[in-house]
Amino acid sequence: MRRLLTGYAVSFNRRHRRWGHLFQNRYKSILCQEETYLLELKYKVRAQGYDVERIARRVGQLMQMHVTQVTAPGKNRQTVGARGLLCYWAVRECGMTMVSLSRKLGISSTAVSQSVVRGEKIAFENNFKLMSD
Fold first, then answer.
1. Of 23 and 78, which is predicted with more confidence?
2. Sign of torsion, CA 90 95 98 101?
3. Residue 102 sits in which domain range?
4. What is the C-alpha separation between 133 and 8, in angstroms, rounded?
């Protein structure tokens, strides 16, 4: 049995260009510290009634797209960027869960996770804000 599992681990690592134990570094632990500013921002956003549709309208306004294009499926570069911005604001600033957002958008939670990272980069590079000051 040991030989069988070792052989599987070796072939899996070769196939996926990995090394080490099969489940090595599977989970990552990070220190989560929310500053008072972030807590205040989340409170403000929730108090103003932001939901997925309202965030999609804001993204469409900033990216000069129609709201249906923001939530549309597909791999169009502009749509992917807009969806990333939507996911970033919904998860990080509104506190929505990735699972609930994935159900609303009809994509996997992994895709939402990747979109959050992409959206953060877009928001930072273009200095986009969810709430205009």
1. 78
2. negative
3. 31-126
4. 56
